[in-house]
Give the backbone structure.
Amino acid sequence: MSGTDQPRARLTPPEGATPPVRHPDAPAPGELLGAHYDRCFGCGTGQPHGLHLEARAGDGVSITAEFTVKEAHQGAPGLAHGGVLATALDETLGSLNWLLRVIAVTGRLETDFLAPVPLGTVLHLEARVTARHGRKIYSTAVGRIGAPDGPVAVRAQAVFVEVKVDHFIDNGRTEEIQAAMADPDQVKRARAFEVNP
């Protein structure tokens, strides 16, 4: 195998892929999605050094999100760590599954880093589902510095794979799974497993 021809092909929807369809019970455009799980590093409020990413449903099968790059998120002095930026993209892409009303995990994520992101920056993210094929969900995302129309700093393509809740029950740590399953709020219990933790 030479170059990146082969990996790119896996991120391209195959022939026969279908356009995404927003679920009729999906959150309305503009609605704040909230954390799917309080201990999630990406969106949970229970992680002191987490991203605390806030996502909103967009039009069609799209999401907008924001997070502020804090001192705990740096790699090089004064700049966001690339892995943190990839995590923000992954979290935003995973939130798309709420609009499809499926449980899915990241199968492949390819990230391009185009500009450094300084501490204190509000990163504005936008993601959308481009196609579905069987259990695979194809999507793209972009992160912009300082404003929804600001300079592009990062972008990603991803393939998510639809799974059953058993994927988490069989592989997650027992204490956390039991705590999520014991939550009396049925909506919160279901949402704990809606995006890739």
